[in-house]
């Protein structure tokens, strides 16, 4: 695929930034599990946190394919850092840009684009993971305010974000049509974040629980229409799945590069292990699957950029690319042998980071349900 001159420039900026700022800190971020405040401030300065939004609000109007390439590039060096970008653009500020009214966008989207404000997307609950329709958090209108009660789990940027899109039931009798979306600032009375997850991978991306106890927000903080929350969530997840696929491609590319380098440097039986057919066949399979994953990801991103339906393509890209990332990371560790199991080599971290790619933004199994649904609708 030939990139345009503009795409080449933007992708090079992302690569240069990642090499200069992300790569030197990636191992430390993983080891400590601390949120990389200084790095995120530099991310804000690049404008990547709001790059896909209109120039009117301070964004760059970057098309979705180019944006996916940015995420891919950053993911080569640290998936947690790329998650901070994609969590803002795809899942959180993305719905605000599409469904928000002008007043909401002027108030909040301009802060995302111009100040790098971090946002969070709060859908998942203890009883509503893959079953996104099972939301139990409620929002009740009381005069000119909505009163929110409930709790959310596994929320990215918990405790870091200044603004969350919160899904809550406004009419349980209507099922998915009774779920609405709300813009909830943090902090507010009754809005607490009691704990954070100690994760296996992507440790620099904070994940935690949100608790709402009679949290009051202005009536005008309803996002979109009443009962539109489930639709907003599904569209947000479609965009998010493309960026998870892009993260998967970036991670897999780094794992393959590390495996190739190591196989050339490491000698056994008097020759580099890359000369052994067993190793070379692994590399061939890794390369081929990665190329296919990249094409699926770019196709989904291009369709979204063109404003075409892309739910099917997003699900296929997310499903396939995330599994490829796990496959390639696994083989990279195997090629490194015992060294691959130590923290001295980056493939150990890549192996741990890869697993979440098959889980968040809809598990592999959920993607198969989505894909099958599209297939079975054909005449």
Automatic annotation (TrEMBL):
<dbReference type="InterPro" id="IPR006091">
    <property type="entry name" value="Acyl-CoA_Oxase/DH_mid-dom"/>
</dbReference>
<protein>
    <submittedName>
        <fullName>Butyryl-CoA dehydrogenase</fullName>
        <ecNumber>1.3.8.1</ecNumber>
    </submittedName>
</protein>
<dbReference type="Pfam" id="PF00441">
    <property type="entry name" value="Acyl-CoA_dh_1"/>
</dbReference>
<keyword id="KW-0560">Oxidoreductase</keyword>
<dbReference type="InterPro" id="IPR046373">
    <property type="entry name" value="Acyl-CoA_Oxase/DH_mid-dom_sf"/>
</dbReference>
<dbReference type="InterPro" id="IPR006089">
    <property type="entry name" value="Acyl-CoA_DH_CS"/>
</dbReference>
<dbReference type="Pfam" id="PF02771">
    <property type="entry name" value="Acyl-CoA_dh_N"/>
</dbReference>
<comment type="similarity">
    <text>Belongs to the acyl-CoA dehydrogenase family.</text>
</comment>
<dbReference type="InterPro" id="IPR009075">
    <property type="entry name" value="AcylCo_DH/oxidase_C"/>
</dbReference>
<dbReference type="Pfam" id="PF02770">
    <property type="entry name" value="Acyl-CoA_dh_M"/>
</dbReference>
<dbReference type="InterPro" id="IPR036250">
    <property type="entry name" value="AcylCo_DH-like_C"/>
</dbReference>
<keyword id="KW-0285">Flavoprotein</keyword>
<feature type="domain" description="Acyl-CoA oxidase/dehydrogenase middle">
    <location>
        <begin position="120"/>
        <end position="215"/>
    </location>
</feature>
<dbReference type="InterPro" id="IPR013786">
    <property type="entry name" value="AcylCoA_DH/ox_N"/>
</dbReference>
<feature type="domain" description="Acyl-CoA dehydrogenase/oxidase N-terminal">
    <location>
        <begin position="4"/>
        <end position="114"/>
    </location>
</feature>
<dbReference type="InterPro" id="IPR037069">
    <property type="entry name" value="AcylCoA_DH/ox_N_sf"/>
</dbReference>
<dbReference type="GO" id="GO:0016937">
    <property type="term" value="F:short-chain fatty acyl-CoA dehydrogenase activity"/>
</dbReference>
<keyword id="KW-0274">FAD</keyword>
<dbReference type="InterPro" id="IPR009100">
    <property type="entry name" value="AcylCoA_DH/oxidase_NM_dom_sf"/>
</dbReference>
<feature type="domain" description="Acyl-CoA dehydrogenase/oxidase C-terminal">
    <location>
        <begin position="227"/>
        <end position="375"/>
    </location>
</feature>
């Amino acid at each position: 695929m030939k990139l345009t001159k503009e795409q080449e420039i933007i992708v090079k900026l992302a690569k240069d930034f990642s090499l200069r700022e992300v790569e030197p800190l990636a191992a430390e971020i993983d080891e400590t599990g601390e949120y990389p405040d200084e790095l995120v401030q530099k991310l804000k300065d690049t404008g990547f946190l709001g790059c896909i939004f209109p120039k009117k609000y301070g964004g760059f109007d970057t098309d979705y394919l180019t944006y996916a390439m940015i995420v891919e590039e950053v993911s080569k060096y640290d998936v947690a850092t790329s998650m901070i970008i994609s969590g803002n653009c795809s899942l959180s500020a993305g719905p605000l840009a599409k469904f928000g009214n002008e007043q909401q966008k002027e108030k909040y989207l301009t802060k995302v684009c111009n100040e790098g404000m971090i946002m969070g997307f709060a859908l998942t609950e203890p009883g509503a993971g893959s079953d996104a329709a099972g939301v139990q958090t409620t929002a009740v209108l009381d005069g000119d305010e909505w009163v929110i009660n409930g709790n959310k789990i596994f929320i990215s940027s918990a405790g870091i974000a200044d603004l969350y899109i919160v899904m809550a039931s406004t009419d349980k009798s209507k099922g998915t049509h009774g779920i609405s979306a709300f813009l909830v600032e943090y902090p507010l009375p009754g809005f607490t974040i009691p704990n954070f997850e100690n994760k296996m991978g992507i440790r620099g991306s904070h994940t935690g629980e949100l608790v709402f106890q009679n949290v009051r927000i202005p009536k005008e903080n309803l996002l979109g229409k009443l009962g539109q929350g489930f639709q907003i969530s599904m569209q947000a997840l479609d965009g998010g799945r493309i960026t998870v696929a892009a993260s998967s491609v970036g991670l897999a590319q780094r794992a393959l590069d590390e495996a190739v380098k190591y196989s050339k440097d490491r000698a056994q039986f008097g020759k580099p292990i890359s000369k052994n057919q067993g190793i070379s066949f692994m590399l061939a399979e890794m390369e081929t699957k990665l190329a296919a994953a990249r094409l699926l990801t770019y196709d989904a991103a291009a369709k979204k950029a063109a404003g075409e339906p892309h739910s099917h393509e997003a699900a296929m890209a997310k499903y396939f690319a995330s599994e490829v990332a796990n496959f390639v990371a696994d083989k990279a560790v195997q090629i490194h042998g015992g060294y691959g199991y130590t923290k001295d080599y980056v493939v150990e971290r890549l192996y741990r980071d890869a697993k979440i790619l098959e889980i968040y933004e809809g598990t592999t199994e959920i993607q198969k349900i989505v894909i099958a649904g599209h297939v079975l609708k054909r005449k």
